[in-house]
Amino acid sequence: MASVNHFQVTFDCAEPERVARFWCEVLGYVVPPPPKGFASWGDFDHSLPAERRGSAFACSDPTGVGPRLFFQRVPESKVVKNRVHLDVRVATGLVGEQRIARLEAECARLVALGATRVRLLVADGFNESCLLMQDIEGNEFCLD
User: Fold this and answer.
1) Residue 50: CA count within 13 A, CB half-sphere
2) pTM
3) Would you place residue 2 in the very low, low, confident or very high pLDDT band (cuts 50, 70, 90)?
4) CA-to-CA distance for 119 and 111, rounded, in angstroms?
């Protein structure tokens, strides 16, 4: 039997800590403790050379089940649609109006955090309804 490899999902972004903290709120993830010898991530960040300060941040599933999310600063802005995106599973098992109501409720919560609602994709007989959204830097994700 093949073993399951652990993985992380990496986001290119302009403001790693800001985007990481957004995704912590979306997913219920946490910021791990700072490296040994540092009282805070701010202290660690200030120990880096100036050009590396604020260049990366991470968050993780507090249960240890989900993948680690890593956010790295890149110089270019987002210009095209993501080729990979997250589906945030908030309405699993629900159909019809119950599903849409759950998607809409979570959408409202995430919009308050800075996300953008793009559009509702209505069930088509093959796929259930889902909501296409963007995070605080425009990266697409779905509420599913």
Assistant:
1) 0
2) 0.86
3) low
4) 13
